[in-house]
């Protein structure tokens, strides 16, 4: 089992009494230190101050209670406090050497979170551009074989006297029906 765990790309560790009893090489890679230097050190050394109470509570709530798990996201830091990774932890209660312990799975989400943050920024910029233009804009998207309104701007809504809540996620057929009632659908057909 040890060979299998050491070959995983996902970080796996065992904690006892707040100390690292075992960490596979992937944990060391995430933290940027050799995994064999982690044994006997406190987990809290790498958890950001902002997340420390949450992580310690999760560990405390499952320690030794086989079959219980907690999932959470946190930031791991180096000794100077600078973030080294944004991770998802899955903490499970186990018995290790007859003692209450935790099995911790560490999944590095640093790249995914950076991409998510960039996507949110880009969406915000697109929203700002759409709202700034005086041209009426509506964007339709095919979703699961159904065409729906994905986004629109204030110029479109005010020109046609429509409410954003009624238009967003409306099907193309429903949008055409709303436009027909306002006498403007003929140009769209």
Structure write-up:
It is a single chain. The protein has 189 residues and is α+β, with helices and mostly antiparallel strands. It has seven helices and seven strands. The protein has helices spanning 2-6, 25-31, 49-62, 110-132, 154-160, 164-167, 172-181; strands spanning 11-16, 19-23, 69-77, 83-96, 99-108, 138-143, 146-152. The strands form two sheets. Strands 2-1-5-4-3 form a five-stranded antiparallel beta sheet, sandwiched between helices. The protein has a two-stranded antiparallel ribbon with strand order 6-7. The radius of gyration is 26 Å and the shape is elongated. It starts with a helix and ends in an 8-residue tail after the last helix. 21% of the residues are buried. The mean pLDDT is 90.
Q: How many β-strand stretches?
A: 7
- C-alpha end-to-end distance: 65 Å
Radius of gyration: 26 Å
Helix content: 25-40%
| Class derived from helix and strand content | alpha+beta
β-strand amount: 25-35%
- Major sheet size, sense and barrel closure: 5 strands, antiparallel
**Approximate shape:** elongated
Number of helices: 7
**Low-confidence parts lasting 5 or more residues at pLDDT below 50?**
none
Strand order of the largest sheet: 2-1-5-4-3
H and E order? HEEHHEEEHEEHHH
User: What is the average per-residue confidence, as pLDDT, rounded to a whole number?
Assistant: 90
Explain the layout of strands and helices.
Layout lengths: L1 H5 L4 E6 L2 E5 L1 H7 L17 H14 L6 E9 L5 E14 L2 E10 L1 H23 L5 E6 L2 E7 L1 H7 L3 H4 L4 H10 L8
Core attributes:
single chain, 189 residues, alpha+beta, five-stranded antiparallel beta sheet, two-stranded antiparallel sheet, 7 helices, 7 strands, 37% helix, elongated
């Amino acid at each position: 089992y040890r060979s299998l765990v050491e070959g995983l790309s996902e970080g796996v560790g065992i904690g006892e009494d707040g100390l690292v009893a075992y960490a596979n090489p992937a944990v060391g890679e995430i933290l940027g230190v050799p995994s064999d230097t982690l044994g006997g050190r406190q987990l809290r050394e790498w958890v950001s101050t902002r997340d420390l109470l949450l992580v310690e509570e999760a560990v405390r709530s499952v320690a030794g209670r086989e079959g219980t798990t907690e999932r959470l996201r946190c930031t791991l830091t180096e000794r100077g406090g600078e973030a080294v990774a944004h991770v998802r932890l899955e903490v499970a209660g186990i018995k290790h050497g007859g003692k209450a312990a935790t099995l911790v799975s560490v999944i590095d989400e640093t790249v995914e979170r950076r991409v998510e943050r960039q996507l949110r920024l880009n969406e915000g910029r697109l929203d700002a551009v759409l709202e700034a233009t005086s041209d009426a804009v509506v964007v339709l998207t095919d979703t699961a074989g159904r065409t729906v309104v994905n986004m629109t701007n204030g110029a479109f809504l005010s020109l046609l006297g429509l409410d954003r809540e009624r238009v967003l996620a409306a099907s193309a057929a429903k949008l055409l029906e709303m436009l027909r009632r306002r006498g403007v659908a003929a140009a769209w057909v």
